[in-house]
Each structure stands twice: as C-alpha cells, then as structure tokens.
Amino acid sequence: MTINQSGWKPTSPQANEGGARATFTGNKALMLEEALIFEIGDDQTTGVDFPAGDVAGSRLGNLTRKAPIGLPGLSEPETVRHYTRLSRQNYAIDLGLFPLGSCTMKHNPRLNEKMARLPGFADVHPLQPVDTVQGALGVINELAVWLIELTGMHGVAMSPKAGAHGELCGMLCIKAALEKRGEGHRKVVLVPESAHGTNPATAAFAGFTVEDIPATAEGRVDTEALKARLGPDVAAVMITNPNTCGLFERDLKAISDAVHAAGAYVYCDGANFNAIVGRVRPGDLGVDAMHINLHKTFSTPHGGGGPGSGPTVLSEALAPFGPLPFTARMKDGHIALIEEETAGDDHPDTFGRMTAFHGQMGMFTRALTYILSHGADGLRQVAEDAVLNANYVLRSLEDTLDAPFAFSGPCMHEAIFSDEGFPEGFSTIDVAKALIDEGFHPMTMYFPLVVHGAMLVEPTETESKAALDQFIGALRSVAGRAMAGDQSLKTAPHFAPRSRLDETLAARRPKLVWKEPAGTREAAE
Amino acid sequence: MSRYFTEDHEWIDVDGDVGTVGISDYAQGQLGDIVFVDVPEAGKSLAKGDEAAVVESVKAASDVYSPVSGAVIEGNAALADEPGLVNTDPEGEGWFFKLTLSDASELDGLMDETAYQAFVAKL
C-alpha cells in the first residue's frame, strides 16, 4: 500500500453534465440501449440446433411455406440479454414505491413464491385425475373458505381470471337470478360516478343498459338520487367500496336495503378491499356479489410476478347461480371437483362456465400463503397500516396540492389530489412525468373523472415512513415547480432512457407492426 | 341558421330540418389532444340524449350525445384520418355528424351561444 500524497480524496464523483457526451454505443454507463428484437435478430442464427430430419420428403405438398417466416433468430445468450436489458428499463414494486392508485401495488412476500413453486402446486395439470391433485384442490378449497369468511358471504366462484372477469361473473349471476324469477326485463344497471370505470363496461357487456348516478360534493354516492331512480326496470347497482375517491361509502347498508326492497341486486367492486380486509365484511352491508382482486389485496400485484385473479363472493340469493367448476370437501375429507359431469342435480341453476379450468392456481397458492402467514390479526393490521399510510400522504400534501375530498374525513386506501391552482399550460401529466425523474412510478392520473386532473396515490401498507417521506418530498418539490410555472416540467422526464414522448402522435399514428426496412434483405443476399 | 348548445358541451347548427352536431371549443380544451373519433353511420336513428359518437383523447374517452332526435344523414369521414380537426376547428371542420331533425321543438330546451358561454364560465 502506498501513501496518497496527491491530496486526492476518494469521494464519489457526481455525474457531471459538463463532462457528459454522447457515447459511441449510445449506452449510458451500464444502462444499455436496446434495439428491437427484429433489428438484432436475423434468419441465419438460432438458439437450437435440430438434427437433420430423417423423414424423406414433405407431406405438406403445396402448403410448404414459400418465403421466410420473418421471425428473428438469436442465440440463447442474445435472447437472455435482450430481455434482461429491457427489464432493467422497467420499474417494479421490487425497485421502489409504486403509488398507482386503485392498484394496491404492495410487496409480494418471497414466501409466496416459495410455496407457489412447490412441485405439487407448480407441476400439476388441470386434467390430472382429482385423486392425484388433492393438495392443490385443497388449496383452492381452503382459500375459498377464507374468502367467504373474510367477506361474510355465502359462496365464492374461484374461476374468474381477474377483476373485470369477476365483475362479469357477478353480473351473469344477477342476470340468471332475474331470469329464474321471470324478471329478465330488468335491464338497467345503476353505476355511481365514484365507481370503477370497468363497472359500466361490464354491465354493458352483460347486456344491461347503464345509467350514471351522480357523486356528492364530498365524493360519495348521492344516495337520494340513487334511491329515486330505483324501480321495476332496475336489475342492479354496481358500487365500489371504498370508492375511487378513496372514501368509504358509509350509506352502503341503507343503499342495499333500498335496492333489495326494489327487487334489484347489489354488486360491489372489491378492488379496494385492502383498506377494509379484516375490518368490514361486505356481506354485512347487504352486498350480493363482489370480486376480490387476489393480485391486489393478497399480494402479487401487476409487475410483481403474477397474473390477475378475481374470485367472486356471492350472497345466499346468488350463490346457486355461480359458475362451474368449484371444489367441495366431502365428509371423508376428500376434495371433490364439482363439474358438469359430477354436479348431477345439485347445482341446476348455474349460469355455466367462465373458464376451461379452475382458475389461477399460482395466484391461489400465493394468496392462501399470504392469508395464512398474516393470520386474521395480521390482515386486520394490513388494512389499518394501508389506511394510515394513505392518510399520512393526504395530510402531508394537502397544503401543497388541492385535495378535493380532504374535508370529507379520513381517506381509506388512497389519497386524491387535483390540478387546481396549476398555472395555464400545466397539468397533472407534467407532475407525473417529473416524478419519473425523481425515481418513482407516477400515480394514477386523470381518474376518477369527477376530479379535474386527478392524481390518485395509493401507497399501501408496504412502505416505511422513510419511504413515504421521500415520496412526499419528491411530489411536494415537483408540485411546487408546477405551481411556479417551471417550464422544464413540460419536457420531463429528462433522466429517463427516453424523454417526453409524443403521446398524441403515438395514439393518432400508432405503429403496431414492425416492418423490415425496404431493401434490407436484398442487400444482405 | 341557428346554433344551440347542450350542458354536455355538444353544439348543433340547424338549417331547415338538418342539424350539424359537434363538441364545443370548451369541450375539446378539457379533453386535450383528440386521438380517435367514432361517428355514427348514415341511417342510424337517434333519440335525444342517445350516445351518438365516441371521442377519445390522450386523457379520456367520452360519449357524445345527440342534442335532438333524428336520423343520421352523414358522419364526418374526415375525422377518421384527422381526429385533430376537433382540436383545431371544433365548431367548424371538426363537426361529428349531420342528422334530420324529427322534432324541432326539442331545440327549445337548449342554450344559445350567450347562455352557453355563461354556463361554461361558471364551471
């Protein structure tokens, strides 16, 4: 070891704009530029070498392909590097706080992954004899019991593949129930403005006519307007609770009573169940059907490792109409799979089947792991911490950003702000883009529509106070720049792999198919 | 020719029994850059308040309601290629559709330009 006599101190040099210059490769240090796979692949390379075929001739006749198929050929390391490089330009819950409102982007515990990868769950096939998959069916059955218990409902359809699919399941149950009692003429579904945007789409898809119910100034359903609209043509009300303004619909029980008295059903969008799990049972509020986003409330959010899964809990009135298949524990402990062939006369009113098989097995395993590892008290604390974190964000920023429902009392799982007070030419998108420079995925923006330039922030229980403080500081800084009319916001993000993209041009002139530049192939030959 | 406005920010120009419908300058400003417009086909029958067209911007998708009842004569084909006309000339070249009015008395419930400007000023 030599003594440093030059006076040089080993501090970390900061990135220096003055010294920055374009690199030969276009890469920025270890952040790599990446071309499209079609641009790096060719038709000479392959990751797999097949032995020469020993079949003489082809039986395809004149169906043999005349031109190259046009798929890019790459070696295995090239393929792995391509997707790994792309993944490094992505943002995920495993990288940082992900405040996307109404998405419940919470940490996905690694225990979930360990359980989901057990061969008895990961390597089974849905067509295996049920005697050979008793453990997997047991997971589905046990999770069903928990979901019924947590919601205070009567039954659950496990097969819906995600939230909107669960909504459709609930609405098809309502349709079947109405037809069964000869009231198929009830065609109107009432959807409050504070409901999720998928609700009216689901109702329309299921063949109903949608009518809006206004929100009150405090961000809740206008109960009187809803009651006034009830009548012999109304099939159901679709209500989101807690709603998209981040508020608990306090009148839901009274609404349900009025809806039932009018001969209609209550669908509750359970996407925001995280705020009330273990605290409120929707069944006690008169809900007839509610989907649960396993991939929100019970971890594995989008980008967190799994697909969606939307089991739908059903009231006693609707359970007979639920879809096949479902599991049932027999007296001897055996788990039976109730399908068309095995249902016999036991489930005559089912509206049918929504999926080929039983649902998202991987998500079931993760959700049950999450539930069992938290326990009833842990789930209750999940809801409490999620609500506490959202209120911390709301109260920390209400002096900086307009918070239209701050006066309505504590928020639930998410805090909502508007672009009120931004100078001419500045909008929510500028704040969102600048948050990318600060190292955060932006919040949900311009939704719900009842709030102008809405910014919907859902921190979830995952975040520590330190993480929340850093996010609050970043949002305060960016919002302050917007209020001050800082023009540099209009071109943000500045530090992302790509700066502000022309979203209008991209939407008006989308390029959905890669086209080989003219002459490339000829030049190569 | 007279121009009327609805509280949902549609305008309608009426010439005889033919009405031309579009969305107001205020509406296009609120929506932001329009990227897609779906206009009704000729022959479609609309009741007052029916969903007649769809307009999508980078921020949101919205329904456009028919201000009056009638039969559609023509949708503005130019909007398929140039939805931006709704931004640049909302109350002119960016019209959505023309229809034959079936009940001119429905116009009585609509606002004139002055009343609409006063309505917008309060939003």
TrEMBL record, chain A:
Residue ranges of every copy of the Glycine dehydrogenase C-terminal domain listed in the record: 384-480
GO terms (molecular function) for this protein are: glycine binding; glycine dehydrogenase (decarboxylating) activity; pyridoxal phosphate binding
| Chain spans, region Disordered | 1-21
**EC number(s) reported in the record:** 1.4.4.2
What are the recorded Gene Ontology BP terms? glycine decarboxylation via glycine cleavage system
- Keyword check for Oxidoreductase, yes or no: yes
What's one Pfam family the UniProt record gives for this protein?
Answer: GcvP2_C
Reaction(s) catalysed by this chain's protein: N(6)-[(R)-lipoyl]-L-lysyl-[glycine-cleavage complex H protein] + glycine + H(+) = N(6)-[(R)-S(8)-aminomethyldihydrolipoyl]-L-lysyl-[glycine-cleavage complex H protein] + CO2
- The protein's superkingdom reads Bacteria
Aminotransferase class V domain mapped to chain residues: 186-303
Gene Ontology cellular component list: cytosol; glycine cleavage complex
Q: Briefly, what is this protein's role?
A: The glycine cleavage system catalyzes the degradation of glycine. The P protein binds the alpha-amino group of glycine through its pyridoxal phosphate cofactor; CO(2) is released and the remaining methylamine moiety is then transferred to the lipoamide cofactor of the H protein.
What is the official name of this protein in its record?
A: glycine dehydrogenase (aminomethyl-transferring)
What is this organism's lineage?
Answer: Bacteria, Pseudomonadati, Pseudomonadota, Alphaproteobacteria, Sphingomonadales
Q: Which gene encodes it?
A: gcvPB
UniProtKB/TrEMBL annotation, chain B:
Per the record, the domain of life is: Bacteria
Q: Which keywords does UniProt give here?
A: Lipoyl
The PTM N6-lipoyllysine maps to: 59
GO cellular component entries: cytosol; glycine cleavage complex
Q: Which InterPro entries match?
A: 2-oxoA_DH_lipoyl-BS, Biotin_lipoyl, GCV_H, GCV_H/Fam206, GCV_H_sub, Single_hybrid_motif
HAMAP family assigned to the protein according to its UniProt record, in alphabetical order: GcvH (MF_00272)
* Designated name of the protein: Glycine cleavage system H protein
Q: Please name the source species.
A: Sphingomonas dokdonensis
